[in-house]
Amino acid sequence: MAAVYIAAGWEPVAVFELFVRQLPSRRNYLVAAGLADALAYLETWRLTPDELGYLFDQPAMAPLGPAVRERFSRLSFTGQVEAVPEGTIVFANEPILRVTAPIVEAQWLETALLAIVTYQTMVATKAARLVHAAGRPVIEFGSRRAPGLAAGGSAARAAYIGGCIGTSNVEAGRRFGIPIYGTQAHSWIMAFPSEVDAFAAYARVFPERPVLLIDTYAVPRGTERAIAAWRTLGGVRIDSQPLAILARDVRRRLDRAGLSAAKIVASGNLDEYQITELARGKAPIDSYGVGTALVTSDDAPALNSAYKLVAIRQHEQLSPVIKLARAKATYPGAKQVWRRLTPAGRFREDIIGLSDEPRPAWRDIQPLLQTVMKDGRRVAEPERLAVISARVADQLTKLPPALHIVTRRSGYRVRYSEALSRVTRQCRREQR
Amino acid sequence: MAAVYIAAGWEPVAVFELFVRQLPSRRNYLVAAGLADALAYLETWRLTPDELGYLFDQPAMAPLGPAVRERFSRLSFTGQVEAVPEGTIVFANEPILRVTAPIVEAQWLETALLAIVTYQTMVATKAARLVHAAGRPVIEFGSRRAPGLAAGGSAARAAYIGGCIGTSNVEAGRRFGIPIYGTQAHSWIMAFPSEVDAFAAYARVFPERPVLLIDTYAVPRGTERAIAAWRTLGGVRIDSQPLAILARDVRRRLDRAGLSAAKIVASGNLDEYQITELARGKAPIDSYGVGTALVTSDDAPALNSAYKLVAIRQHEQLSPVIKLARAKATYPGAKQVWRRLTPAGRFREDIIGLSDEPRPAWRDIQPLLQTVMKDGRRVAEPERLAVISARVADQLTKLPPALHIVTRRSGYRVRYSEALSRVTRQCRREQR
């Protein structure tokens, strides 16, 4: 595609927007995430000599002259990016990110931007649901089951943004400054001559309120051994079903031993639906470790995200463009999302308008998209993860409460401005 | 965990096996993949000074002396690995890979090995289902929707192993030598002043049987424009529904124009169930591009994979170990999988036995696990991807036909050898 633009001498400035077309049936909102990584990708994007060599060795590329190769060798991102701040709650069709750049660059970067933003948004959203369902700390435990090693790191980052208190992925802790947590694996307990030996060895090395995994062999006996192992036991992890019953028994045993401060961490293929049941049944669980369901977003393992051309600028003339294909029709023009709040500061409705139309006249209204990159450079330092995470927590309190119910589909009002609707109608007429 | 082993002076050799506990309800077999990447990880695994610095800055690590840090700084993988050749069909509980190594190393590597092997196995399996359903070429189109940028590359590799003929991910083409394919994006068509301009520009630059995307605005008109654009049109891509109807109309138009050699590529959120319907209805589709469903394995987005300790060797004494926790109990001891074939060479049944028990006496039996790494080094060069892919294709023809039906659950007989059953009973008794 890039080669044809160059060879055809058709190189306008293009405006692309990244958004999610529809929410999965089990999602009432999305937590936008991955933006910092997307910007880092844009800033460092180059074609290496190896990559160029491979590309121009392809028979399909043979018709292209050295001019195209030379242009490719000089490519870097020189455009502008508007985006919602990372951690912003967004809904279907709301641009998460907009790229305005020479069309060769803007087109080329589609795959990377979609892959980075979609996955982290999916995981951050899942984390927000889990944390809400739990009503207590949730730790991301999923790297083992993540879609590859790199995804494990991104998932840890996104999960922290979505509200998890930390991760078991030590490398993600180092790279992103996320608090790290962990106990032992069953295999670790099994490696010692006995469970008693394993607990004793652990508590000797980490005497500061150790947390011990008690279900490798049998939970009641494991609990008693953990209690016997260390006077200032920090807590226990239960990784087996039936969690509600086991947790109650373990709690009784801990309390009876005078360890009422010792915590119970629950894990083992948990999701927001099971956690909702456990919370409803008041299972005495102090925190949850969630892995597979979180890093794969198992009940909604894909988002219908798109990166669509919305306008073309040629000779200072900006023209909105549109796609008409059934079920995938797009809205033309560079957009802004205005979020209208209630007097109490809650989300009331969103209006998707044109980026250059006047700000709606209501009070309590916020534009979501901001300029984050100019001439290929970030306009500000990346935000700290704690800032992003706090933004999510704040916005989640402002969401209409029905949207938090993990078992029920609830809509939020998002409408299009008069000006955007008018341009859309006009584009459709022209295309037809 | 590693620190406690070292500090406690408990450092036996450990034997870990990686396997999938149960198959998802929509999977009748698995295509083992990711082994080459797992071995590459083991060969290069080290802790960098940065990583060590971070780790020992953690308050939890404060109790550990400099001896542990010094040991960590010298860690590398020195063990042995047995594995099934990449692309082998496997079933639940069959070891895909076994690590025999000093326990600190073997334990540490759990997360990486599981993440690498599980994701690629999941995608290769999904690809095999898609290719079987299609009965014609399938191209991996999913990088945009992959769980992050790195996962897109792994997915392309795994999809090719599973039977896809290539990928739209050019970087995966370069890294793994996978054939690359692609047409244009809708946005690319939209970027030109008109569809006619876009088609003409493309065909001028790539005159060798160009494939054009015809559904940006309206399929019938797009088809006629593609036909008009280039006398030797290679084909068209349709990315909209209803595919069966659109494909029939497009085929008629192409044939009428004398372009009976022009191919129809179909794409657009396809999966093996839709493709089965299209194939059943004899839709005139020549090849499929599949993205989201493939790279997320959407109907089974996680595999219940595990990396479990099965034996410990201390002072030349090898002891099998076992986990008893309900629903997650393991079988002890290092294992071999024997695959018994019918006289016609089809898979008849698998026997999971101990690796050191005598080879069963039947004819037509193959051991699946082979030594692939010794003393931390591969015993052979990595296999070429085409070899792995051919292995899958060959083994799929030997699978009982019922296992290929994507809409029906079918079992395959896998049993445990007498010797393994005996050791398991004995271990259970001892633990109890």
- What is the third-level CATH name, the topology of the largest domain in chain A? nicotinate phosphoribosyltransferase
Radius of gyration of chain A: 26 Å
How are the strands of the biggest sheet of chain A laid out side by side?
Answer: 13-12-1-5-3-17-18
Number of domains of chain A: 2
Main sheet overview of chain A: 7 strands, antiparallel
Number of strands of chain A: 19
Give the amount of beta strand of chain A, in percent.
15-25%
Q: In oligomeric terms, what are we looking at? A: homodimer
Low-confidence stretches of chain A: none
**CATH class label of the largest domain in chain A:** Alpha Beta
Task: Give the rounded overall mean pLDDT of chain A.
Answer: 95
The backbone outline of chain A, from C-alpha atoms, is globular
> Largest contact between protein chains?
A-B, 96 and 96 residues
CATH homologous superfamily designation of the largest domain in chain A: nicotinate phosphoribosyltransferase
What is the helix tally of chain A?
16
Global structural class of chain A: alpha/beta
Protein topology:
The structure is a homodimer of 432-residue chains.
Chain A: H1 2-7, E1 13-20, E2 30-31, H2 35-44, H3 49-57, H4 66-73, E3 80-83, E4 89-90, E5 97-102, H5 103-108, H6 110-134, E6 138-140, H7 149-162, E7 166-167, H8 170-176, H9 186-191, H10 195-205, E8 211-213, H11 219-229, E9 235-238, H12 243-256, E10 263-266, H13 272-280, E11 287-290, H14 292-296, E12 305-314, E13 317-320, E14 335-341, E15 347-354, E16 365-367, E17 370-374, E18 377-378, H15 385-398, E19 414-416, H16 418-431
Parallel strand pairs in A: 6-7, 6-11, 8-9, 9-10, 10-11, 15-19
Antiparallel strand pairs in A: 1-5, 1-12, 2-4, 3-5, 3-17, 12-13, 14-15, 14-16, 17-18
Helix pairs in contact in A: 2-6, 6-7, 6-13, 7-8, 7-15, 10-11, 11-12
